[in-house]
Amino acid sequence: LVSFSVSPRHSMSDGIGATTRKGVCFGLLTLALFAPDATLMKMIGQAVTAHGTVEAMILIIAWKLSMLGIINLSVGAIAEGGVLPLLRGFATGPRHVLFASIFQCSTQICFTTMYLLTDAATALLLMSLNPLWTALSSWLWFNEPLPRRTIAALAGAAVSLAVVFVPQLASAPPPVDAA
Q1: CA–CA separation, 156 vs 77, rounded Å?
Q2: Which of 100 and 7 is assigned the larger pLDDT?
Q3: Which of 23, 59, 140, 177 is least crowded, fewest Cβ atoms below 10 Å from its Cβ?
Q4: What is the largest CA-CA distance in the chain?
């Protein structure tokens, strides 16, 4: 939630090790919630395809973002002790909140569109690899060392991506020339 990232009450350096187990449990719960979302998005996407309108897909994305915004702001207000403390938290770093909000909206739009344009299993495969790509990005941009198990996981991820996507790409029809 955005309020946690800008509030002085919630420092990233406070008890990271103590909350690891809670974080893993929360992550597993979140992943369990993604599967029904992907399936629901796919079902809605099939209904949209049956009607053949792009406007319906845009409407789905708009409703999903609206509901996420309402839920996130409500939980943030509860966590901060009210709307005014939440707004004060936003005021401590307005550019950070703006950047985080734009980034979050972009990822939600892309994920929802991905669900609508591909099968749920493929979408979830790509999403499940986010921690590995984050580790690789941290190594590239911040020179953080990669543990051997992470390197092995990245190699396994590359192999699994190849197993899933190379046959699909190899069997795809060639693009039609416009000339």
Answers
A1: 41
A2: 100
A3: 177
A4: 63
Q: What is the pLDDT of residues 92-125, one digit of tens each?
A: 888 988 998 898 888 888 877 777 777 767 777 7
Q: Tell me if residue 160 falls in helix, strand or coil.
A: helix
Asked if residue 129 lies in contact with residue 42, where contact means CB atoms within 8 angstroms, the answer is no
DSSP3 helix / strand / coil % (the chain, rounded to 5):
80, 0, 20
Which of 2, 10, 7 minimizes the C-alpha distance to 92? 7
CB-CB contact of 89 with 3 (8 Å): yes
* C-alpha to C-alpha distance for 31 and 17, rounded to whole angstroms: 21
Q: What is the pTM assigned to this prediction?
A: 0.52
Read out DSSP for 46-72? Answer: HHHHHHT-HHHHHHHHHHHHHHHHHHH
The rounded distance, in Å, linking the Cα atoms of 139 and 153 is 14
Note the Cα 169 to chain centre separation in Å.
24
> 5-13: long-range contacts at Cβ-Cβ below 8 A with a sequence spacing of 24 or more?
5/93, 5/96, 5/97, 5/100, 6/89, 6/90, 6/92, 6/93, 6/96, 6/97, 7/80, 7/89, 7/92, 8/92, 9/80
Rounded CA-CA distance 146/152 in Å is 10
